[in-house]
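Could you show me some protein's one-letter sequence and the numbers that encode its backbone in two labelled lines?

___
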Amino acid sequence: MAKTINSIYQSLLSQLNISWPTTTDVALSGSDPVVDSVFRIGECAAAVLGAQGAGVAEIWRRRTGGRRQQISIDSLAGALASFSVGYQSQHGYAFPQSEPSYPLVDLYPVRDGRWFMLHGAYPLLRNGLLNLLGCTMNPSDIANKVGAWDAFVLEEAIADQGLCGAAVRSRGEWLDSEQGRAVAATPLIEIIKIGESKPEPFAPARKGDRPLSGIKVLDLTHVIAGPTLGKTLAEQGAEIMHITSPTQPSLLPFVVDTGHGKLQALLTLTEDDDAATLRELITQSDVFVESYRPGAISKLGFSAEAVAEMRPGSIYVSVNCYGWAGPWLQRPGWEQLAQVVTGMTVAQGTPDRPVLQPVYPNDYVTGFLGALGTMMALLRREEEGGSYHVRVSLCRTAMWIQDQGLIPKSQLPSSAIPQAEIHKYLCTQDNPAYGPLTFLGPVLRYSETPARWDLPPLPLGANLPVWPSGAASTGERLQHALPRHRLPAHRHP
């Protein structure tokens, strides 16, 4: 029997051993295909978001002495949420995606008849690939130089230099590989208890509170998957502070897309004063999220264990590409690389012409899984105490999506989602930095605590790295933290 959106949801709950009473308050509807994908992206995203919403509702039930609410989402909303960056516009024009590296973020045929995915989206990655290949940014030059390599030889050469790229594999090839077997043996969401602490009951809800009011999240992430986690938690009142380095490259459309509901601060963690500032913030926070190459944050003194010592009871969330075991653990990766190595591009196209997905399922769904894992850890902390390390990865997500089965290509839609259907989920707000901004709003529907973001997307560094304080409601305190100028004049000393 073919799976339904509800069977995907129930299977997910069983796989993760989730039994909150609020899981029955989630209504899921619709079916794929919504977009031109052989995978059940809309249903998978909706199922994960539904489970995350059940976690939010469970916290609300405990904070209010038993009040429950109905939550709903459909497959269309799930599909839209898997490409929210594509629904941004200013004054009716698509939000600019001025990324100069697209020729180095593409699939190319190689000498041994296989295909290869390069990923040089950031300057260091771009320059490293150009040097390794000995070519210019001209697409024909890149194709000629890549075509002179065998796929797996090029893959190892790129990995040896800490760059990004991978050979295209079928699903079977991935599952037969050492790395594929290592990832398959790990849970979809890993939650590891790393320290002891007293239970932390959720504070009773006061007037004006929302389910996650009072939960403070430090967001040391970049691009899509990691930042999506914080954005998702912000929908129900969590206070999110995104922290990046002033020298870290960024991609503006994704900064805006994932910046809803967040303070934006700058810190250079190799500087003693800034590292001390982060340590102080950790003592005042509940959740620490990072999405850099495994070990990068740890080398700066902010491993999961170190954070648990600074703040017993902390929830530390890590997001990476290739999983948390196997020989590829230290390799940097991106959404598209998770697609090509796990077999998604071969299934979407053919072995002779692999095709990327029309949306970013691994990035966004991994972000939603990270938010779900955060709910699970917060609820466990309330019951038994402890510090927890939550781990998710793009490749593990890609494998789970593929586990849900394929849609015959003959059934894929021949046209785009109707604009009228998309418009139901769009919001337009005047933004202090970007003017009137249209964007995809929260897609989960809550009957009692409607989802919203208390802050608009702000430029990186728009706020000081200080948690707002005072007796006002969370939303009011965060609104007071809005910058007085369109752009920050100085970074924190």
Q: What stands out?
A: The two ends are 61 Å apart (CA to CA). The chain has one domain: 5-95+184-325+357-480. Residues 5-95+184-325+357-480 form a domain with the Rossmann fold fold (CATH 3.40.50.10540). The chain has a mean pLDDT of 92.
